[in-house]
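Worked example

This section walks through a single chain of length 353. The input is the sequence exactly as stored; nothing has been trimmed or padded.
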Amino acid sequence: MTDAQDTRPTPRRRRVEWVIGGLLVVVLAVEIVLIWPDLSESVQNLGDLRWGWVAAAVVASLASMSSFARVQRCLLGVADVHIRQRQSLAVTFASNSMSVTLPGGPVLATTFRYRQTRLWGASPVVATWQLVMAGALQAIGLALVGLAGALLVGAETNPFSLIFTFGGLCAFLVVAQYAASRPDALEGVGITALRGFNALRKKPPLTGVRRWKHIVNQMSAVRMDRRDTARAFGWSLFNWIADAACLAFACYAVGAHPGFAGLAVAYAAGNAARSAIPLLPAGLGVMDAVLVPALTASGMTGAEAVSAIVVYRLVSFLLMATIGWIVFAARFRGAQQQGEEGPDPAPLWRRRK
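Given that input, the structure is written out below as tokens.
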């Protein structure tokens, strides 16, 4: 069979593409219908929107996407798989659109990213390691944002706690760097924690131990030195900071001025809820239900909180997803995938009680 025959789309493949495209249109239409009542009500409360801050929110969201693409580049570079920023950014936009708009999006996005890294020359071990490490760095970064906000909230009520705030952040950074550079050292700690957790649940002591060892082995597949770890973690942390800045600029766009500490706590809590209950695209409804009271507690009125979330969603969700699907259609639609199988999603994403 010739190369031309290998790459020529078959009638069956064309039908599959049309079906997927039709399902995508239906899903997007349903999502618009679901959010339209809240959108129309909050638009009436937007009043004089400050478009300069809206533009700043767009820039912050683009910076967040770019920083995640740099995390991918850093991790692959450690394994001697070197790609350009535009390649990584294209995959980041496309996979983000899959993750936030399609049913089962996170698994589909993970498989898509895996196949692209394989096409770039990464081995199966390196491709899986990159996915696991990127997820681990993101989890640490989000935890750091939430910890910083919580500590600063305490610092506002007690100035002497600023010392503990700084010390706590430094300790967290040291632990995060150590965990990212030497993931194998986490095996014993994780097993001990699992045993205690299983005792509370009245489960067998070794429940979940095999899965934990599998994750640690994946994280240990490639060694990172301190410089590589700091660079990857720095971009991963900036990814969260830029997205949080997008939310802050959305608040400023509607004339609100929430406290920095309260905003950080609200953002971290909203994203934690989104990750814990991944039933709806981009955590629609779940994340917003956490953000509204949290932003209100930070000094905003209820109307301002709802309006700010609408602006934030339009930028970080709708606009970024639209750009991602345009990138996918222009760059990846019909691309040959070399028949590579995706990673086993279970050890990467599935949560078991």
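What to look for: The CA atoms of residues 136 and 346 lie 15 Å apart.
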